[in-house]
Amino acid sequence: MPTIELSWFRQPFELGTCEMWPMLYTEHDLEPVPGALGPRGGPDLVRHWLAADSTDELQRCMRTDMQALGFDWMSHASVIWREGTPSTTRLLSTHAHPCWTQFYFGEGGCDVDPLLQQAMLSPLPLAWSTDDVPSRSSLTQATPEQERFADVLRGCGVGSGVLVVLPAAVRSNECTIVSMMSPHLGRSWMTDEALGGAFMFALCLHELLTTQMRLIDGTAQGALASATRREILHQLTLGQSNKQIAYRLQLSADTVKYHLRELRRHFNVRNRIELVNCKRSLNHAVVQLGQD
Q1: How far is Cα 25 from Cα 241, in angstroms, rounded to an integer?
Q2: Which of 10, 65, 174, 291 sits at 20 to 30 Å (Cα–Cα) from 193?
Q3: Cβ contacts of 277-285, under 8 Å, gap ≥ 24
C-alpha cells in the first residue's frame, strides 16, 4: 500500500485555529429526550442503543454494530450550505478516524472533497474506494489537491467507504452526512446487503442523534454542564496529559483539545496551568461557602 508523510499528525496542531473546524462532541455530551420514543418503539437498532445502561455501553454497542458491517470508523455531521460551499457545524467524533478528521478540517480536505460532490447528486448511499476517489470529481481531470485527497485516505489506512446524505428537517440549506470508512480495499466486498446495512445504520444513527437524544448546550448551560468537560477538568487537575485524558475517557485527542479550548474561553484563561488554578480556586470557594 502506498504511504505518505502524515505531517499534520506529527506537527503541533491547535484545534479550533481554523474556522472550518466544527463543534466536536461525543455520546457523553448527549442526554435522552424524555418521551421521544414513539408508541411503536422505533427501529430495532435504535431501541438496542437506547437500552444501553451507560454512555460507555452505548459507545460500545454502536462500535460493535458498525464493525459488524465491515467498517472501522464513522461520523455523523451536520452541514450547512452557504453560497454552494459546505460548512460542517457539528460532528460526532467518537468513532471518526482522528488523522482523517484532522486533515479534512485542518488541512482543507473539505474544500476539495470529490466524494461529497458526488453524494449530493443522489439520495442513495455512495460506495467508494480510494482507487476511484479522484475520478469522482465533477471536473474532467482531477486536480493535484484531489489526487492528494485519495493519497491521504490511503496513508490513513482507509481503503473504502460509504457516504449517506440525509436532509435536515429544519433548514432547507442544511443536511446530515453519515460517513462510514473501512480499511478494506476496493468496493467488491460491499455487496447489496452490506450497502443496505450501512444505509439502515445511517438512518438509525440519524434517528438517535436528532430525535431520541439532544446535545447539551455548553454555551447556554455553562461550560461545566457537560459531564465530559467536568471529567476532563478533573483529570487535568490530576496532572494528566491530553493523551492520557483521551485514553482514560475513551475520547479522541481532538475532542479533548476542543473541550479544553472551550473551558479556557469560558474561564478567560490562556493555558492549562491557569485553568487548573481556576478550578482549584472554585473548589476552595465552594468549601469556604459551605463552612460559612
Answers
A1: 20
A2: 174
A3: 279/233, 279/236, 279/237, 280/237
Q: Which residues contact 129 (CB under 8 A, 6 or more apart)?
A: 159, 160, 161, 185, 186, 187
Which grid coordinates are listed for 264? 479556557
What residues have CB less than 8 Å from 118, skipping those under 6 apart?
A: 126, 128, 136, 138
Q: How far apart are CA 91 and CA 18, in angstroms?
A: 15
Spatial separation of the C-alpha atoms in residues 182 and 72, rounded to whole Å: 5
pLDDT in tens, 222-261: 445 467 777 888 888 888 999 999 998 888 888 888 888 8
* Residue at 48: amino acid letter: H
Q: What is the rounded distance in angstroms from the CA atom of residue 58 to the CA atom of residue 214?
A: 15
Instruction: Walk me through the domains of the chain, giving residue ranges and CATH numbers.
Output: 7-215 (3.30.450.80), 218-291 (1.10.10.10)
Angular region, 198: left φ>0, alpha ψ -120 to 50, beta rest: alpha
Length of the chain: 292
Integer CA distances (angstroms), 12 to 65, 102, 172, 196, 255, in order: 34, 12, 38, 40, 15
* Spatial distance between the Cα atoms of 35 and 268, rounded to a whole number of angstroms: 38
Q: What is the pLDDT of residues 112-143, one digit of tens each?
A: 888 988 888 888 899 999 988 866 655 456 67
CA-based torsion, 52, 54, 59, 64: positive or negative = negative
The residue among 178, 74, 186, 180 whose CA lies nearest residue 130 is 186
